[in-house]
Design a protein that fits this description.
CATH superfamily of the largest domain: P-loop containing nucleotide triphosphate hydrolases
Structural class: alpha/beta
Number of strands: 17
Strand order of the largest sheet: 3-4-2-5-6-1-7
CATH architecture of the largest domain: 3-Layer(aba) Sandwich
CATH class of the largest domain: Alpha Beta
Number of helices: 34
Oligomer: single chain
Number of domains: 5
């Protein structure tokens, strides 16, 4: 058991810059420090990593963190190193290291420098590594992405099932297992396999209140995706496709349509994959088009949308992939395109699999179909799948899913629910939803005939062709009754329907109940795209925020780190609201601890101080949130107008200013570090060859003086043209 000489929140502030823990983080950390096993089920963006990173940093010895992907390990190690001035505080140990690098890792671990050592499960199976780990002080084992243990999980990895015996062979120290997606079945499987049935379980809410969920019929899908992304121009997003071929096709399509997109799939060579992933993390590409090979553990907090070109193979996959949106609490739009043809493709992938694997796969696909076709609150159905009851009746007031934002027709369902529950009991509660739906609708499928249930006295009791009460109708009714609590699914015999006590009471005393009319995906008009706008908190001074974001990008490139490792967006927003100019004030910014402030803060403080002086901003001593000053307001307007490709003359006219004044404003914006793209305007006025000549001049010249440049080119350009070219040069080269 680890004894502390200060409150846990002091360590949290010191290492991570936060004043308070999120959710159950503090309880998890305490439980681990007390030497107990912990099982943490926490959604993406909920702060899982901190649950083992903080105890590792303050415990004696090295924490061994088992992680499934090299990209994920590198991401986590970069983040930890960004919090500390000690480079060796975190390492990963896997096949990507050279002999020299591997030797350095072992030295740092042996000398007690390394607090977190990330390893792949395959690395733990090697005798030499087991021998090495036996000789060091281990604080605890962390099993990240623990759902990989379960055959019921969406990313099963056989090597994970050997972890228990290996850990016990090394040292049975406390274990913390963590996952972002675990149904009750997967949870049970993980605990049994790791030998931690008695572990304390910490299950955070799976509700991500900032995410908006929408399913659209898969019609004119390419056009829809292009239109959607262009309506979110400049924002980071991921488009998931089922096949490598489709990834390449969609990435090329987006590029041709002026969208800064790159492909990512396992068929690309490792160098290209790494470059494309880094380009996305470093904000040199807006959109990644990917198979599910991309994304596990990619800790980019400002992904604003996740689009599924194809429906995933399970709700766990869907939840995990959509969970990569809005991890900073800001806007996160989750849009999926659904077609039953995609479901048939997924089912074909299962052909030839062992019977048990086939059964599991079909059941997971069925859950995905249920979610896609449902007309009830998507958030409610999604949370129910993970064993959580959504406290609100639905998310209608906030409109956080398409079904609640644009509700479907409701109707009285008392009689139909009673018929359904009686049929389940009549079948002795041993069949799954698809079978029951066909039975109630009177559809004599081959399965039903094999059991001779087409001769059952209740067969077809719910048949009503005049009102289109077919198997799809009864399937939708089953889904709604599960959410109402009248029907339950067994965990052990996954998918088998039982009537709950509440359901049995309903049969005795039926009450009025509203059912929702299900979607019709057969033929939908190609109308206007519904765009859901839900903003994050944002910065008070957007112009300063833009400047800081550009500085972060340049510092990241210089140090070879993704920008968010330097400071995350909420920290920059806080800086652009509170204007810190001293190191002490910087440590009061959200997410900025002492180590981070000392490591990265100087350049940011200098920029903020200069900005405050340039804009005559009066900073209250207590750094109270202040409104945007007029000078910043005009900058914001100009930047937004340029983003919308509005001609400079029109920008000037709308503000009652001259073109000269607007150019001066743009020059100030660029000189203060914000990059602008005036290509839409410059390319109409000046030939590309002439632009290149001026670029070469500015690259070699001792000064960027416009008058000197005009003399050099013997007045071949107007003053306005030269100023535009200087803006373009400074924006592209200096910022």
């Amino acid at each position: 058991m680890q004894t502390l000489d200060a409150p846990l929140t002091d360590y949290l502030k010191k290492h991570f810059g936060f004043n308070t823990f999120k959710g159950e983080q503090e309880l998890v950390v305490k439980n681990l420090l007390e030497g107990n096993d912990s099982f943490v089920i926490m959604p993406t963006g909920g702060g899982k990593s901190l649950c083992y990173q903080l105890p590792a940093l303050i415990s004696e010895g090295t924490a061994i963190i088992v992680s499934p992907l090299i990209a994920l390990m590198k991401n986590q190690v970069d983040a930890i190193r960004g919090l500390s001035s000690v480079h060796g505080i975190a390492h990963f140990y896997n096949s990507s290291l050279t002999k020299t690098e591997a030797k350095q890792v072992k030295e740092d671990v042996t000398n007690g420098i390394t607090k977190l050592l990330y390893v792949a499960p395959e690395s733990l199976t090697k005798d030499e590594n087991v021998s090495f780990l036996k000789g060091i002080k281990i604080s605890f084992f962390g099993i990240d992405e623990a759902h990989c243990i379960s055959e019921w999980g969406h990313d099963f990895r056989p090597e994970y099932r050997r972890l228990r015996s290996i850990i016990e062979a090394i040292d049975r120290v406390p274990i913390i297992a963590l996952t972002a997606t675990a149904t009750p079945k997967v949870q049970e499987d993980i605990q049994k396999n790791l030998g931690m049935v008695g572990a304390k379980v910490f299950k955070a809410s799976f509700n991500r209140p900032n995410l908006y969920y929408e399913i659209r019929p898969k019609k004119d899908v390419k056009k829809e995706i292009i239109r959607f992304i262009k309506q979110h121009d400049g924002k980071s997003g991921i488009v998931y496709c089922l096949s490598r071929k489709k990834v390449e096709e969609i990435a090329e399509l987006l590029q041709v349509n002026g969208i800064n997109a790159l492909p990512y799939h396992a068929g690309l060579d490792s160098g290209t994959r790494a470059r494309n992933q880094d380009a996305f993390l470093m904000e040199d590409a807006d959109v990644i088009v990917a198979t599910i090979a991309f994304g596990m553990g990619i800790d980019k907090p400002d992904v604003r949308f996740v689009v599924h070109h194809d429906i995933p193979k399970s709700l766990e996959s869907y939840y995990q992939e959509t969970g990569r949106a809005g991890r900073d609490g800001g806007e996160g739009i989750c849009l999926a395109f659904y077609s039953y043809k995609d479901i048939e493709k997924l089912e074909k992938f299962l052909h030839g699999k062992p019977v048990a694997e086939l059964e599991i796969g079909l059941q997971l696909i069925f859950e995905m179909v249920s979610y896609s076709e449902t007309a009830v609150c998507r958030r409610k159905q999604l949370l129910h799948y993970f064993g959580e009851e959504y406290k609100d009746s639905d998310c209608g007031d906030q409109g956080l899913c398409d079904n609640c934002a644009y509700p479907k027709e409701k109707f009285e369902g008392k009689e139909d629910v009673k018929v359904l529950l009686e049929c389940i009991l009549g079948l002795n509660e041993v069949f799954k939803a698809k079978y029951v739906a066909n039975f109630v609708a009177g559809n004599a499928s081959s399965d039903i005939k094999s059991f001779a249930h087409d001769a059952h006295k209740m067969f077809g009791k719910g048949e009503d062709k005049a009102n289109e009460k077919d198997e799809k109708y009864w399937d939708a009714t089953i889904r709604q009754c599960i959410i109402f609590g009248y029907i339950i699914k067994e965990i052990e015999n996954y998918g088998i329907l039982k009537v709950s006590e509440k359901g049995k009471e309903f049969i005795k005393n039926p009450i009025s109940i509203e059912l929702v009319k299900s979607h019709d995906y057969s033929d939908v008009d190609d109308g206007d795209v519904i765009i859901h706008q839900k903003g994050g908190a944002g910065a008070a001074d957007q112009a300063l925020f833009n400047v800081l974001k550009e500085l972060r990008k340049s510092v990241g490139k210089e140090m070879g780190l993704p920008p968010y490792v330097i400071f995350q967006d909420p920290s920059l927003e806080d800086m652009a609201t509170r204007y810190p100019i001293t190191m002490e004030e910087l440590t009061n910014i959200s997410g900025v601890g002492q180590g981070k402030a000392e490591k990265f803060g100087d350049e940011f403080l200098e920029v903020i101080e200069r900005y405050v002086e340039d804009n005559n901003i009066e900073r209250p001593l207590d750094m109270v949130v202040k409104s945007v000053v007029d000078k910043s307001a005009i900058k914001v307007f100009v930047i937004q107008s340029i983003d919308r490709k509005i001609p400079i003359e029109d920008i000037a006219r709308s503000k009652g200013k001259s073109v000269d004044e607007i150019l001066a404003e743009i020059e100030n914006i660029v000189l203060s570090g914000t990059r602008v793209n005036l290509d839409y305007y410059i390319n109409q006025e000046i030939d590309e060859e002439d632009q290149e000549e001026v670029f070469e001049y500015f690259m070699e010249a001792e000064s960027d003086d416009v008058e000197e440049a005009l003399e050099e080119f013997e007045n071949a350009f107007s003053e306005e043209e030269m100023r535009l070219l200087r803006i373009k040069f400074l924006s592209e080269v200096a910022n």
